[in-house]
């Protein structure tokens, strides 16, 4: 059975549309149709049926997709493992949210390279910076691991948690809270706040803190980036509750420890279950566990 045809089938099964699948695969729609018909002819069973302007898998198609995914995963993992082993090391594909990717993840990369005899190389990507996007990239095998603020589906991902920097409250200089040594979350309620956008994993963490005091902030503005939040606070648009960051020291801000409720936070390192990774990637996973889980 043609290997390319199997990959075509997998993409078509995901998109359920010949035109979109052909565009993603950079082939013509007739070539895609021919590839699927060849597979169906060899199997002696229909894999797709029409569903309006789209298509959907038949019960035979669902079963075949399960087999194809498993087979391609094994083939891709084995191919990469052989290539990496021949180079006495390998490339490790990492993803990280920005707050972890500025210091923690680079430190782990550098320390691992210093203690291993393998010729290890890294690629560090942020996708769009959201935990959900990073986890999706791991699920699709575009990344080996990802560092995120929330865990993925336990049925799909193997993860472990670790402690990370706590939340702080940042205010403009001269703000009524800026003269304090620390702040309780209750103290922030009278003031407008700059918040993470709802699509951010950190927004869920901040909302969870407010839920502990049975309150909600007065949202003056929402944005996706903590650096933008810091700039808006420095310009006097409000205050913010967010993870501590060295960036804050370079802006006209007051950074106040958050004391109540307990702002202890967790982060996660995740990988897809059932994937055979090269030795270098497996060793890096174990190294991170030893360094982060104490």
TrEMBL record:
Annotated SUPFAM superfamilies: Periplasmic binding protein-like II, Winged helix' DNA-binding domain
One Pfam family matching this protein: LysR_substrate
Keyword terms, alphabetized: DNA-binding, Transcription, Transcription regulation
Gene3D superfamilies to which the protein is assigned, alphabetical: 3.40.190.290, Winged helix-like DNA-binding domain superfamily/Winged helix DNA-binding domain (1.10.10.10)
Molecular function in Gene Ontology: DNA binding; DNA-binding transcription factor activity
Any one annotated GO CC term: cytosol
Family in the record: Belongs to the LysR transcriptional regulatory family.
Protein name in UniProt: LysR family transcriptional regulator
Organism: Faecalibacterium prausnitzii
């Amino acid at each position: 059975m043609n290997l390319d045809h199997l990959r075509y089938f997998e993409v078509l099964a995901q998109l359920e549309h010949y035109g979109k699948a052909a565009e993603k695969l950079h082939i013509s729609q007739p070539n895609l149709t021919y590839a699927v018909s060849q597979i169906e002819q060899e199997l002696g069973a229909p894999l797709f049926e029409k569903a309006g302007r789209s298509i959907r898998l038949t019960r035979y198609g669902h079963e075949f997709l399960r087999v194809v995914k498993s087979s391609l995963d094994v083939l891709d993992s084995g191919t990469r493992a052989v290539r990496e082993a021949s180079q006495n090391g390998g490339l490790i594909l990492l993803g990280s949210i920005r707050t972890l990717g500025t210091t923690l993840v680079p430190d782990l990369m550098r320390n691992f390279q210093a203690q291993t005899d393998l010729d290890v190389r890294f690629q560090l990507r942020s996708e769009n910076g959201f935990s959900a996007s990073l986890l999706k990239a791991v699920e699709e095998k575009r990344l080996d691991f990802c560092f995120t603020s929330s865990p993925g589906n336990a049925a799909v991902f193997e993860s472990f948690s670790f402690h990370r920097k706590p939340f702080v409250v940042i205010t403009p200089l001269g703000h009524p809270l800026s003269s304090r040594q620390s702040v309780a979350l209750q103290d922030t309620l009278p003031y407008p706040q700059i918040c993470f956008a709802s699509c951010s994993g950190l927004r869920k963490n901040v909302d969870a803190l407010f839920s502990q005091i049975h309150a909600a902030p007065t949202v003056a503005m929402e944005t996706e980036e903590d650096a933008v939040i810091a700039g808006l606070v420095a310009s006097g648009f409000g205050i913010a509750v967010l993870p501590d960051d060295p960036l804050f020291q370079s802006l006209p801000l007051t950074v106040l420890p958050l004391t109540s409720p307990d702002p202890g936070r967790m982060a996660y390192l995740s990988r897809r279950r059932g994937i055979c990774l090269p030795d270098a990637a497996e060793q890096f996973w174990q190294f991170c566990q030893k360094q982060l889980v104490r």
